[in-house]
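User: quick one
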Amino acid sequence: MDSTDFWTTEHVCLGGKRRTGLGTATEAKRTPTRWETTLVSKRTALAGLALTKRPNPTVSSLSLSLSLSLSLSLSLSMATNNHVLLSKMAMNNGHGEDSPYFDGWKAYDANPYHPTENTEGVIQMGLAENQLCVDLLEDWIKRNPQASICTADGVSEFQDIALYQDYHGLPEFRNAVANFMGKVRGGRVRFDPDRIVMSGGATGAHELMSFCLADPGDAFLVPTPYYPGFDRDLRWRTGMQLLPVICNSSNDFKITKVALESAYAKAQEANIKVKGVLVTNPSNPLGTMLDKETLISLVSFINEKNIHLICDEIYAATVFNQPTFISISEIVEQDPNCNLNLIHVVYSLSKDMGLPGFRVGIVYSYNDAVVSCGRKMSSFGLVSTQTQHLIAAMLSDDEFVNMFIAESGKRIAARHKIFTCGLAQVGIGCLKSNAGLFCWMDLRPLLKESTIDGEMALWRTIIDRVKLNVSPGSSFHCSEPGWFRVCFANMDDKTMRVAIERIRAFVFESKEVEVEVPSKKRRWQTSLRLSFSSRRLDDVTMTPRGMSPHCAMSPHSPLVRAAT
Amino acid sequence: MTQNRFNLQDSEREEDDSSNSVSSSNNSGAAGMRIIVPLQGVVQGRGGLVLGSVIPCALFYFLQLYLKRNRSPSPSPPPSSPSPSSTQLSELSGIPRSLSRSHLSPRGSTGPTYVSNRASSITKSGDSPYYVGLNKVDGDQYDALENPDGVIQLGLAENKLSLDLVRDWFADHLKDSLIIESGSDLSISGIATYQPFDGLMEMKMAMAGFMSQVMQAPSSFNPSQIVLTSGATAAIEILTFCLADPGNAFLVPSPYYPGFDRDIKWRTGVELVPVPCRSTDNFNLSIAALDRAYSQTKKRGIKVRAVLITNPSNPVGNLLNRDTLYSLLDFAREKNIHIISDEIFAGSVHGSEKFVSMAEILDSEGFDRSRVHIIHGLSKDLSLPGFRVGVIYSYNEIVQAAATKLARFSPISAPTQRLLISMLSDEKFIKKYIEINKDRLRKMYAAFVNGLEELDIKCMKSSGGFYCWADMSKLIRSYSEKGELDLWNKLLKEAKINVTPGSSCHCIEPGWFRCCFTTLTENDIPVVMERIRKVSESCKSRH
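Assistant: Done. Structure below.
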């Protein structure tokens, strides 16, 4: 199963530069010794299992090389340290950083773009971070020195706050967070401060949830495409598993009851105990929101099966267009038939307030046992009281919070428009979205072959030649090759323009190359070259594939919408 | 049975807590607490007969149920710990709690929802008198003026003696704002955006400097060996995840810090094997006892992966001398296991003895370092438990790498790190702080121990930590764990003093108690002594 851990997540690469035991592709090419081969075969057996999940045969080669590299790195570290035993966790690759998807992050780390000093560097578009509003935060912090207990104005509260280490969290912090959560959901639901459990970021919150709900071997169902960090955050230390619920582009990746039922049935066949369903709403990586019907059908599904529903709503206030966001809380509080003990919300201030450095994660559970157990568990990831105090003050400033959310929405909307329009001009579409800090970009037309290998090849070109770190769909377990998540809010306008320029140049180039290869069978390509050579960019709203007679564009295709 | 009663109270309390919480959503938590405390009295009142007869039956039934449930195909069911009956007892009594009311749900049945076994297991460790006492203080804390009849907290190792120094430093040096005008590290982009999860490099450097200062190590600590986590609790859990698989064990000289049972065992599935130390040896660690525990554990088919020591010891407060450290290293090499040295109190040494860090031994001799890991933090030595800074200082590169990645689950907020970087970099201040703090600790220790001595309660001679290890065996009615817990209960309920009983620390001799004195002012000491005196007299009169 290790082989299906694909990583491109924003959280990972920040871990520092000292990584050991990285199984790179070059290592994997070495001829394995006999001992290593035995190890490989074990792993391959696992990789074979992984195959059942993913019908594409090309995965197997990937898995093999992965497992090879794993065993090699394992053997290398064993050689240096074989005399002191370490845990399997320390030695295995549950962190997933040995995956080839890390190459994008490595490329960025090795050669980061800088507007003046390194204009040829790699631009980071894999990090879902909102840097568009830091000036607002800075301004507030400067205007409110009393919010920090470490300034002359705020120091009167130093003693109590600095000593407070209770895992319940400061009462003012819990109250402020509960109010804020209600506010960003339009005041349609109220949250009880006594159900707020804190943790080290949403990362910690998710792990805490899975520690509380699942035993080793148990599983959550997760609709694909899903945030790749889940594979590590939920599984690594807890020993649980994630099973994909396959969604696809034909209905804009909607979660259907049929897909849920089929994933559930599959798990039962495999004798895996399903403990819950995990959804992100608004979705990461899609940037779309679950509509009321989907939420209702989810709730009825989990009630039928008597399993938990974990809703990750960390982008609840990062919604920049209609329709408005509907929280799971609104649905379940109106549904008298829903067993509230099954409902849990994960929240964080990293995205909605643009404060990932503060590492504030929240678990809001309607289940008393989970609240009480989660509280105790939160002692492994408490937020510093200095930060709790600061956040409490900031979130209690209603005027500021209202202004911030409105302004942040405007800025993200503007950035989203610049980016999607820039892409649309060269015929690249994105799934229609209205939330999040990223787009789900459709590069299917640029794939040489419509397989995961084809996607990886294109992705490597984008990393190495176009010099953008974007995240390929396969790292999100997307069932269709050719989709990429591109983050657009972690850079300034100038860098954004450079990034768009690079994508456009690349699209032209690849189309021209394609055209230059003589292929008389397809007449449409000639006309394409004409249009490109004339460089009437704005006319090109359709992709070559879209024009292909073999692949008529469906009226539901996101391409059509994105272009309009 | 005494303990069972506490557990039940605790569970009742929690349920009250949650039912209350719904109604008091508008009020602050404090208001809720005021309702809960009287409720507790009611619960205790009706405890007697009914509970006494129903519970043993229920216990037995649930034990059966529990065993049945646990016969699931998990790879290695955690073996029961060989610890004294206290754990057994509390484990038993934990079961009815986890299954109480809404959670009465055998796994797999289609009844109410189920949470994980791990989640239900936490109720066990929550029942230790250590936690019960800590909870008891909540909402009814003693205050000389505001709440003179409140509970005096001697169970929490926090230090209020020198916090004024830290506070004043912040007030003087960070006058205006958390953010200093551009050009400084405290700019917004340095705190709001994603930062490395294992700590900022500047923070690691500052921390390395601080550790060298408090441990008075001749050579310095290497910042790149440091992984920062949110508190030592997380540090020690992450280290455990790195060193041991579920079902493996650590040897821990007892008495040991009661929090270990939860912090280490709960989520990792690692066992702790107490290695009993005795009052006749001044509770010093003996390698022979370690060896014995090692072979016994091995005989049970359990792999021992490490020895976990606290130095200065918590709860006794004594220091490990050089010879012991050498023999410990030899022992670890011979058995091919790790050493975890929890040195969180390294800078809080008040006696005449000099503290020797494991790092110092490794510096001077050609020992195999890759099996040694040190835990430190700022909660004790800089009196900042709220800031949640823990340190894993490992000499093993693989552990460093794995811990760096695991730190993502327990990161420290960036603004807090930035603030601390500026303070820790002020070496002059740190030096002054350590000196003054030691001086205050010394005075407080002397005053507290003398006070107890006047009541004919002797303390084990100690040199470090925020507590003393007091021998109250003369006050207990039966020389047993039950006698000890009766006295503890009396101190908590009648004298309104929360101390930590030795049984919570897996001490094999009954009658010892850990009393933290650093939360007190000098004026509080006579109040504490007077309260203890009353209990002591009533105990003696009944003899």
